[in-house]
């Protein structure tokens, strides 16, 4: 098909320049007029070369015979559609033998004539593939980075070992798109399975591997080198002795990574897959980074649990191990720690048997969570016990402890409730040092005890504390507790105490263990808790009259005892309902106690009671001291500063007197008619 003129030659040159290959195809129709093939009308040199022609004039050559691939690839059919419809066809076609990519365009230029152009676009396609691959790698890298950030956040929020293992199961499996995870921790020379997902060990057997043994994970730990096996065959090349266990498993690929923290191996993790898996370089790097993060988190968690165990042991050591058995009373004590790491709470409780009838019930809370707070708590608890067993009154115990606290640690602060229970009397004398009041449940209801409020221990060195004496019903339940039970920043104290009263009132029976368990299991308190909780429940049952006939207290033989003695008598007289004799009784008692401490050495004992006389019911008050000197009413010297005490008693009492005590000393008494 030689050029007939310069214009035709120029046109051919232009076609060769515009396309790598170009051809004109004439449609071949069968008897029914259907296009069944094409004949070459023209083909340029590139096209001829691709078609295997020796010249550019394959006149009469059929397309299907020249290029058989057009038939099985469907191109012949597409060219036929162009000849029939006139719609242009454009595609990219991969030449299988060479792998080259050709852009092919077919256009009908005249009836039954199709112009076919094709150019080699392999470089452009390869470049696009490289760009797409780079973008995919970037997306995968971004995904791995996001996954690593998620792993980091999850592990940072995990506190205990169980928390870390749960985070590893969730995040590592998601990041690795894996099916199983086994975590082993190093215990001496053994790797012990502490967690597994997707692997069921036989029975409840402890799964472990010797670090010097043949296991693949042991080699990863010994060499501190991660191992990746994308198939069973690859694994068995390095570990042929594991064929039986591998074939019995449902896993086909593994990564085994040592867990190294601060240059110390603490264990290993095994990530497994249900089918063969190809580990890319980025994926290997990501798993190594994750193993480092997991190792650090596990190391922190292990340290935390060791510290927490030490803290718990210290806390238990500071609380009483054995409490006394009480006649006529039952009790139950509970302690719930709330600590982080080495923090130790300062809550405590104690029960001190003072004599056959009296017992001191104590509960308190040192501010702070630290070993210092725990040490202070231990000192306070022991000093309360020592002063109580020395025989001091409730205020005497607490005032001495307060002075001790301010000397030992001026920065320490503690609250405390010290309650001295007298079972036969049916009375209790309590000192509340900045602490929540006990809850009393009796036949008429459940409510906090109304007690005088005092400063916490450690506030000022020479604080004066006031006690309160209350009457208890024949069947009474007392609950002492620390503020962590009923209060935090989300839960007001008044609401917590009201809720506590409702819970205590709703517990059937008088079993203190059942009461303590019910209180701690109730869901009305601050949840989750943010402080330690200590509580002590005690129930008493008294036979005899509902109203005690008398109550006795011992006071120090000095002038400071006058006020506590008057307060003790005043509380009882008010509780008995004798307001008409309250002021007179307190005045006379103050004079008798003052007279006793001025003329004797040692403690004085005060008894306040009521009795029936010929002229009706009377209040009787007795003051016993160690002096045998008989009291007497002296003439009043108007210039003297004292000497009027017994004169006042003689003038205001309905009856008074004294008697000698067989064991030594005397008792001065007076009576007031109750109106």
Describe the protein in words.
By secondary structure, the chain is α+β, with helices and mostly antiparallel strands. The chain has 18 helices and 27 strands. The strands form five sheets. A six-stranded antiparallel beta sheet has the order 8-7-6-11-10-9, with helices on both faces. Strands 13, 14, 15, 16, 19 and 20 form a six-stranded mixed beta sheet that branches. It has a five-stranded antiparallel beta sheet with strand order 2-1-5-4-3, with helices on both faces. A hairpin with a 2-residue loop joins β6 (180-187) and β7 (190-197). α11 runs parallel beside α12 and α16 runs antiparallel to α17. The longest helix has 38 residues, at 281-318. The model has no long low-confidence stretch (mean pLDDT 84).
Terminal CA distance: 148 Å
* C-alpha Rg (nearest Å): 49 Å
For the secondary structure, the number of strands is 27
Which strand order does the major sheet show?
Answer: 8-7-6-11-10-9
Mean pLDDT: 84
Q: What shape does the CA trace take?
A: rod-shaped
Question: Which residue ranges are poorly predicted, with pLDDT under 50 across at least 5 consecutive positions?
Answer: none
What's this entry about, in short?
With 675 residues, the protein is α+β, with helices and mostly antiparallel strands.
Topology, please?
Elements: H1 6-18, E1 21-29, E2 35-43, H2 45-51, H3 63-66, H4 69-72, H5 75-85, E3 89-94, E4 101-110, E5 113-120, H6 122-156, H7 161-176, E6 180-187, E7 190-197, E8 208-210, H8 216-223, E9 227-229, H9 232-238, H10 243-248, E10 253-261, E11 264-273, H11 281-318, E12 329-336, E13 347-353, E14 358-366, H12 371-389, H13 394-408, E15 414-422, E16 427-433, E17 439-442, E18 445-448, E19 453-454, E20 468-471, E21 475-481, H14 493-505, H15 512-521, E22 533-541, E23 550-555, H16 562-576, H17 582-598, E24 604-613, E25 616-625, H18 645-652, E26 655-660, E27 666-673
Parallel strand pairs: 16-19
Antiparallel strand pairs: 1-2, 1-5, 3-4, 4-5, 6-7, 6-11, 7-8, 9-10, 10-11, 12-22, 13-14, 14-15, 15-16, 16-20, 17-18, 17-21, 21-22, 23-24, 24-25, 25-27, 26-27
Helix pairs in contact: 6-7, 6-11, 7-11, 11-12, 12-13, 16-17, 17-18
